[in-house]
Design brief:
Helix content is about 30%, strand content about 25%. The protein is α+β, with helices and mostly antiparallel strands.
């Protein structure tokens, strides 16, 4: 951070003294982090305790986010203000009131939630009779009672009703008394309910712990001091973002990418769908215009809720690029960061669908939107972006064992494109996702699935001055009859290369049948039955290259060859680097690069 910017931020007037403000900021963040650890340790399913697909946060009484758990995924913590506002709106419409001891469940994707499987539990925090805020947890659940098992790969849902149970500000605990009827509905209408309901109970306990910690903080410093410090933090975050935007040249920066859609559908309007972004930078504010994005699909669930997915995709991408933590350090995560940003999303498009258009498979389009925002921003800050990312895919495995349904969710990671001065990261979640993989030991000890391969792809590395990140090869063998479903993207369109870098590599899925034969699969597979002995092979996408490959350090190319990531032939063809034995042939390399 420049000295001038530092002085500007420090010199701004505050409501409380900076030391007290910093202490309260740290206390708020620690509450959210403690909530995250508590939720992980109490949860039953691996998607929460291992993959960390959850969010924890505190908000004020109107839903403005005060802090969030930095371990959680942005697509869980980020939407929490929308959950709270959706709850408040629903309760006002029904004429209901909040009381101490309440716990409210909410997952309405047209009421602030990211999508139906991400169920939120909110505990209102009272100081005496005054509502002062909310303690909230969200988490992705393995099943939510949709038309087929699992909560991913429900790619044939025709509307939001087919996506599972919908909870619109439902009190699961009313003034301290459990609403047993609601808990019975959950247990009776959700597959693998012991896991799912157990995770929900963990969320409730976690939110209650957060509420207690928040109240302790208020009692220690006074409500006025805590809220004044919060207002100072909002203003501080806003100033940071405005300063970063002001450093950009005024202008319009546009980009367009395409997502697969439904490649096996005969209707051309369901595939090859554009996502269009124009960033309009004016002074210290920015408008993100999504005009030109494809129309919504009224009966296919890859539409993206404007609140809960589209907004988070945009905010997170801009914050990550313009306020990189390497330069700016730890930044208070609150709504001050979003004040300078306006989103324009035409109604009836993928980015602003009309109820009841289905949205459960919104993840990959949302991540593609983030990638498109980054591509547009690359024109203004080329040294702060990566080339195109390899998108994620998610698989739901399911079956019956001893008369009971089992469900498992597995995230097939993507990769980053190369960036200025650094190669792209291999085999990771990208952009608005940062979940972790499930350990092989955990999968094989709990499920009738064997993981036969888990490795980086060979010769699927996008060349560049800095190379693209590499996708994985993952092979699963089914040890019993069951089924799977997949939601994903990136089987047709290669991640974009930047400044002469090579485009990345697409993903693929193949099912090898124990009875003989094999089937190539598209990126979206509805519920598909399998037999014991069948194999599912996933090849993950590799991110795009950054810069002219002939400018790459020959020793870096040699390293990739020796590691088996790039063949000697590819090194010569794509990088102009000749390898002889275990060393670079300098004379031959100079000849190749000067040709």
């Amino acid at each position: 951070m420049s000295q001038n910017l530092t002085e500007t931020l420090v010199a701004a007037p505050t409501r409380v003294d900076p030391v007290t403000g910093a202490v309260i900021q740290g206390a708020l963040e620690n509450i959210a982090i403690e909530m995250g650890h508590k939720l992980m340790r109490m949860s039953y399913s691996s998607i929460i305790r291992e993959s960390e697909d959850f969010g924890t946060a505190l908000t004020d009484a109107t839903g403005r986010q005060m802090c969030e758990c930095k371990m959680s995924t942005p697509l869980q913590s980020g939407p929490i203000p929308g959950y709270v506002r959706g709850i408040l709106k629903q309760m006002e419409a029904r004429g209901e009131t909040l009381r101490p001891g309440d716990v409210i469940m909410h997952n309405d994707p047209y009421g602030g939630a990211s999508h139906g499987p991400d169920v939120g539990f909110a505990v209102p925090v009272f100081l005496g009779v005054q509502l002062i805020g909310f303690s909230v947890t969200t988490a992705h659940h393995l099943d939510i009672g949709a038309l087929t098992p699992g909560s991913t790969g429900i790619v044939d849902a025709v509307d939001t009703y087919a996506e599972g149970l919908q909870f619109k500000a439902i009190k699961v605990v009313d003034a301290g008394k459990r609403n047993e009827a609601v808990w019975s509905i959950l247990r009776d209408n959700i597959r693998a309910s012991a896991l799912v309901v157990g995770d929900m109970e963990a969320q409730v306990q976690t939110a209650q712990i957060g509420a207690e910690r928040f109240l302790d903080l208020v009692n220690k410093y006074s409500l006025k001091t805590v809220m004044d410090a919060f207002e100072d933090l909002l203003d501080y975050s806003e100033r940071l973002m405005r300063s970063a935007i002001a450093a950009l040249p005024d202008g319009d920066y546009s980009a367009k990418t395409f997502i697969d859609g439904f490649l096996d559908d005969a209707d051309p309007s369901r595939k090859d769908l554009p996502i269009a972004v124009t960033l309009k930078v004016r002074g210290d504010s920015i408008t993100v215009d999504l005009t030109g994005t494809a129309p919504q699909l009224p009966d296919k669930p890859i539409n993206m809720p404007l609140v809960g997915t589209v907004d988070i995709s945009i905010w997170l991408t801009l914050r990550s690029i313009l306020l990189d933590s390497v330069t700016y350090g730890s930044i208070p995560q609150n709504e001050g960061l979003t004040r300078p940003i306006t989103i324009v999303a035409p109604r009836g498009t993928l980015a602003n669908p009309i109820f009841p258009a289905p949205v459960i498979a919104r993840f990959c389009p949302g991540n593609a939107l983030a990638d498109t925002v980054m591509k547009a921003l690359a024109q203004a800050v080329p040294q702060q972006v990566s080339a195109g990312i390899g998108n994620l895919r998610v698989v739901a495995f399911s079956g019956m064992e001893d008369g009971k349904q089992w469900v498992h969710m597995e995230i097939l990671e993507g990769s980053y494109g190369g960036r200025y001065g650094s190669d792209g990261m291999d085999a990771v979640d990208t952009l608005f996702a940062n979940t972790r993989n499930n350990p092989i030991e955990d999968i094989e000890s709990h499920l009738p699935i064997r993981v036969d391969r888990y490795e980086l792809r060979n010769d699927a590395t996008a060349a560049g001055r800095t190379r693209g990140g590499i996708g994985t090869v993952r092979e699963f063998t089914f040890l019993a009859d069951g089924a799977f479903s997949v939601e994903g993207d990136g089987h047709k369109y290669r991640p974009w290369g930047y400044e002469g870098g090579e485009d990345g590599y697409t993903a693929s899925l193949k099912l090898i049948h124990q009875a003989g034969g094999e089937t190539d699969l598209v990126s979206k597979v509805p519920y598909h039955k399998i037999k014991a002995g069948d194999h599912l092979i996933s090849r993950g996408p590799s991110g795009g290259g950054y810069g002219n490959p002939f400018e790459r350090d020959p020793q870096a190319v040699l390293f990739d060859v020796l590691e088996g990531l790039v063949s000697a032939e590819a090194a010569e063809q794509h990088y102009g680097v000749a390898i002889s034995g275990n060393a670079v042939d300098g004379a031959r390399t100079a000849q190749l690069r000067s040709a």
